Structure formats: structure tokens, C-alpha cells
Inverse folding.
């Protein structure tokens, strides 16, 4: 069995950002992604434990490390100022990258 | 682009545990979380391959490493004896932690 | 709190493969799994940005490292030729493995 080191980039965003994020992923060279609805909550403001819940979508993107860097840069510069979202990355080993 | 090393803590639990887990997360200092319904199956009893399926919810929590330790301790001591659940953790790099 | 190093194996596949994958998981010695519907998109063919979207299911399997190797081998040899699917793995630390 052969695996390739690659990146997993989950992106949680308000539903309004779904189509812009999908367009970005098509430009980014992502190998593939999944998307599904989630409820989310994040800390807003100063009070500890002050978490508001609302409906979001969660993307999980499989992408080469170099392309992941560029994707995260664009998310931070172009998307974070416009939309409520969170993104993170981790290292994974993929078995087959070619199709979903 | 700046990233912060942090923790991802997925928690899979029976639906009955959803509200108690949400209350725990608000106390735990989690930066944010998502939650979504899943079907799950786990091994029960001695027979290999004996897996029962039922509906659960899956939380995915982004949380600082020190707060993750305390969260997992409370899950293990206070929640595991009362609810059917599984929790694990991994290291991730988050781009923006402030809001969902 | 005690954790065990183990593996997380997400498997994204067309809905048609759901039952065969579940049967495989029961044979594989997986400690447990969740499954949920997702929309997915992957690259097909040569054109950059040519991503088709369709409905899939996403499994997330918790499994011992040795059993993960065998599972991924079987997916690659027996399943990848028959179904549209992607699988990857990462290292996680599980708090409790016995039940879902």
C-alpha cells in the first residue's frame, strides 16, 4: 500500500460563504473535498463561556502542502475579513488522491 | 499566514449527552466547536465483528492544549461512566481561533 | 487521563459502497466508526478546476495501527477498482476505545 503525505484543511464557515469557498477550492488545486452542514459555536467577545450557536457548513479539503499554504493565505486575506469562518490544517497520509 | 498549534478533540456521544457536553464545552474554555448527527457503531462484548449501529452526535472541538487536557479529564471522570461516548485528540494548526 | 496512540481512517465513498465498506469494517477489527452523508467533489480528468459534485458518505474509523494497515490494503486492492472513493489516515490519541 502506498500513501502520500498531504494536508487536510477543514474550513467551517457561515452558509453565505459556501459558494465563494467552493469557487476558491476549484482555483486552489485541491485534490478533492467534502462539505456537510454543522451547527457551530464560537467564543464572541470577552465573556468566558459566551458561545453563540448557529448553522454553518464544514468543508474538509485534501490538498498538497504547497497548495495548502496558498489556500490558507487566500482564506486569511480575502475571506476572513468578509465572512465568519475558522480554518485549520493537519498532516494526513492519503491512499488515493485521484477521485472522489 | 500565521498558524497556532492547538488541539482538535472529536467527541462522539449518544444524543442524550448532547446538552451536558455543550455545557461542559462552555465551561472548558474551548475556542469553538461544531456538532453534527452521525450514525455510529462500536464493538460491544466479546465477539469480533459484533457492532451495533445507532444514532449519535459528533462534536469537533478546537481548544488550547492545556484546556484540552482538563476537558478530557472531565469527560473521562464525569461523562464516560454516565454516557456511551468516545473521545480522541490530535494536533492541528489553526488559522483563526476567535470566532465561528 | 490515559490515552492510546491509534489511527483515524476517514473513508469517503459513493453511497453504493456503504454496505460493502461496513461489512469490511466489521471484519477489520475496527474499534468503532461514525458515518454521515456529505457532498463531495474531486478532480476528474486533466482540466484544472474541473470538479464534479455528488452525494457521498464519509466514514471515520478508529482502529489500531496494525489493523489500519490491513484495512487500507484491502480498500486499495478490493474496493478502489470497484467504487469511487478516497481514504486517508492520521495519528490520534483516543481516550476510550471500547464503545460508541
Amino acid at each position: 500500500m502506498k500513501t502520500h503525505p498531504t494536508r487536510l484543511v477543514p474550513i467551517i464557515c457561515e452558509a453565505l460563504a459556501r459558494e465563494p469557498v467552493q469557487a476558491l477550492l476549484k482555483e486552489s488545486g485541491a485534490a478533492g473535498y467534502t462539505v456537510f452542514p454543522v451547527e457551530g459555536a464560537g467564543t464572541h467577545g470577552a465573556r468566558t463561556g459566551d458561545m453563540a450557536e448557529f448553522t454553518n457548513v464544514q468543508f474538509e479539503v485534501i490538498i498538497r502542502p504547497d497548495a495548502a499554504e496558498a489556500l490558507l493565505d487566500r482564506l486569511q486575506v480575502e475571506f476572513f475579513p468578509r465572512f465568519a469562518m475558522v480554518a485549520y490544517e493537519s498532516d494526513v497520509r492519503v491512499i488515493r488522491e485521484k477521485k472522489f
